C-alpha cells in the first residue's frame, strides 16, 4: 500500500513536530514536509505535492484559510485538513467554502487524527463531531428567501437526498452503504451526482449546505 503523503503546517514548533511524529508512527502515512506559516505551507506543498496538508488556521504572514484557498487552487488533487483550536462557525464555514476537506479541533484523540488523515486522502470529509452536531442543530426553518442551491435540492432523487443527509452526518461511503443497504460504489456514484447537481466542490461543502438549508 502506498502511504498517504502529508505536510503539517503549524506555527507552534511543538505542535507541528508532535503532530508529524504522531502521524509518522502509522505506516500508512509518510510526512513529506513541515511548515511554520501559510506562505511556507504553500511553497512546501507545491514542491512536494502531498495528498493531504494538515493546516492550522492562526499562523503568521498568511493565515490558514488563505493558504488553503491557494493550495486548493494550485493543487486540486491535494486535500486540506484544518486542525485548529477555533470552534467558531465563521472559521468552519470559511474553511469549507475555501475548499478544506475537513475541520478538526486540536483537543481530539490522537488516534482519531490518523483516521481523519486517511479518510481525507480517500476523498471523505472529516469534521469534528462537536462542530458537525452544531451544524446539523442549526438547520433553519422555512424561508421565502430561496437560494439557487436550495432550488437545486429539488433536482435530487429521494435516494440522493438520503445519501446527502448521511454524508452531512460525517459518515463514510462504506457507512452510508451499510445504512442504506447499497454498495460503496453506488454510494460514490450518488455522491458524485449530488455534488454535480448542487454545484459543490466536495463533501464538506455539501455538509455545510445541509447545515444552512436542510435536505
What secondary-structure arrangement, pairings included, does this model have?
Layout: E1 4-9, H1 13-24, E2 29-35, H2 38-48, E3 52-55, H3 64-74, E4 79-84, H4 89-97, E5 102-105, H5 110-121, E6 126-127, H6 129-137, H7 148-153, H8 158-168, H9 173-180, H10 184-198, H11 203-213
Parallel strand pairs: 1-2, 1-3, 3-4, 4-5, 5-6
Helix pairs in contact: 2-3, 6-11, 8-10, 8-11, 9-10
- The stretches of 5 or more residues where confidence is low (pLDDT under 50) are 139-146
> What profile does the largest beta sheet have?
6 strands, parallel
What is the number of helices? 11
Mean pLDDT: 85
Keywords:
215 residues; alpha/beta; 11 helices; single chain; globular; 53% helix; 6-stranded parallel β-sheet
Could you please describe the fold and organization of this structure?
The protein is an alpha/beta fold and about 220 residues long. Helices cover about 55% and strands about 15% of the residues. The protein is built from eleven helices and six strands. The chain has helices at about 15-25, 40-50, 65-75, 90-95, 110-120, 130-135, 150-155, 160-170, 175-180, 185-200, 205-215, and strands at about 5-10, 30-35, 50-55, 80-85, 100-105, 125. A six-stranded parallel sheet has the order 2-1-3-4-5-6, sandwiched between helices. Helix 6 (about 130-135) packs parallel to helix 11 (about 205-215), helix 8 (about 160-170) packs across helix 10 and helix 8 crosses helix 11 (about 205-215).
Amino acid at each position: 500500500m502506498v502511504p498517504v503523503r502529508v505536510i503539517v503546517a503549524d506555527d507552534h514548533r511543538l505542535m507541528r513536530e508532535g503532530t508529524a511524529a504522531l502521524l509518522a508512527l502509522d505506516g500508512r502515512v509518510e510526512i513529506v514536509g513541515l511548515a511554520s506559516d501559510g506562505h511556507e505551507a504553500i511553497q512546501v506543498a507545491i514542491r512536494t505535492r502531498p495528498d493531504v496538508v494538515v493546516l492550522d488556521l492562526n499562523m503568521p504572514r498568511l493565515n490558514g484559510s488563505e493558504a488553503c484557498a491557494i493550495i486548493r487552487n494550485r493543487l486540486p488533487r491535494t486535500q486540506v485538513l484544518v486542525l485548529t483550536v477555533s470552534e467558531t462557525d465563521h472559521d468552519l464555514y470559511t474553511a469549507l467554502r475555501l475548499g478544506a476537506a475537513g475541520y478538526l479541533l486540536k483537543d481530539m484523540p490522537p488516534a482519531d487524527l490518523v483516521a481523519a488523515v486517511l479518510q481525507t486522502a480517500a476523498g471523505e470529509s472529516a469534521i469534528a463531531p462537536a462542530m458537525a452536531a452544531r451544524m446539523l442543530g442549526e438547520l433553519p426553518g422555512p424561508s421565502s428567501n430561496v437560494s439557487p442551491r436550495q432550488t437545486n435540492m429539488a433536482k435530487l432523487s429521494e435516494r440522493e437526498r438520503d445519501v446527502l443527509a448521511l454524508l452531512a452526518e460525517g459518515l463514510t461511503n462504506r457507512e452510508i452503504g451499510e445504512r442504506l443497504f447499497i454498495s460503496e460504489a453506488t454510494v460514490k456514484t450518488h455522491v458524485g451526482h449530488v455534488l454535480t447537481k448542487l454545484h459543490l466542490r466536495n463533501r464538506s461543502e455539501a455538509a455545510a449546505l445541509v447545515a444552512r438549508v436542510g435536505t
